Amino acid sequence: MENQTQNAFRALADPTRRDIIQLLSSRDMTIGQLTDRFDMTRAAVKKHLTVLSDGGLITVEVRGRERINRLEPQGMAPVLDWLRYFDRFWDDRLNSLKEAIERKQND
After folding, report:
1. CA 38 from chain center: how many Å?
2. In whole angstroms, what is the distance from residue 61 CA to residue 106 CA?
3. What does DSSP assign to residue 85?
4. Model confidence over 58-107: pLDDT tens digits?
5. How far is 53 from 85, CA to CA, in rounded Å?
6. Which of 107, 101, 103, 35 is nearest to 69 (CA)?
7. Of 86, 90, 96, 59, which is closest to residue 74 (Cα–Cα)?
8. Which of 53, 57, 61, 82 has its CA 20 to 30 A from that of 3?
9. Where does residue 95 rank: exposed (0-12), middle (13-18), buried (19+ CB within 10 A)?
10. If 0-12 CB within 10 Å is exposed, 13-18 middle and 19+ buried, where does residue 19 land?
11. Residue 6, CA distances (Å) to 42, 50, 74 in order
């Protein structure tokens, strides 16, 4: 698994980071706005944002003194590509099961 994919999975492994991603899916937010949503320090939120940025899931735009965090949906692409393999795996297995059931019904 390439480094970008590993970083994306690492970022998604934590429930707080998944919550941050959900918040950023509705609008861009500053660290302060995100900190107001969680029972943790600004430094802790910033660490989560760093992991999300390293995973390519968010970008940070500096506007004056503010740092605006923005979701980067295309950052999910490596994760989705990896999961699609297993989607095909289950499709093949379920199609085989369906064919076996249909053969049994026709016997």
Report:
1. 19
2. 63
3. H
4. 999 999 999 999 999 999 999 998 888 888 888 888 999 999 999 999 88
5. 25
6. 35
7. 59
8. 61
9. exposed
10. middle
11. 26, 15, 15
If you compute the radius of gyration of the chain from its CA atoms, what whole number of angstroms results?
A: 20
Which residue do the tokens 């900190």 mark? Answer: 35
CB 8, CB 78: distance < 8 Å: yes
H helix or E strand, kind and range, residue 70:
strand 66-71
Q: Which residues pair with 3 in a beta bridge?
A: none
Give residue for tokens 């064919």: 99
| DSSP assignment string, 14-51 | SHHHHHHHHHHHHS-EEHHHHHTTSSS-HHHHHHHHHH
Hey, what amino acid is at 52?
Answer: L
Please give the helix or strand (H or E) that residue 69 lies within, else none: strand 66-71
| Whole-number Å distance between alpha carbons of 107 and 105 | 6
Say which residue the tokens 């107001």 belong to.
36
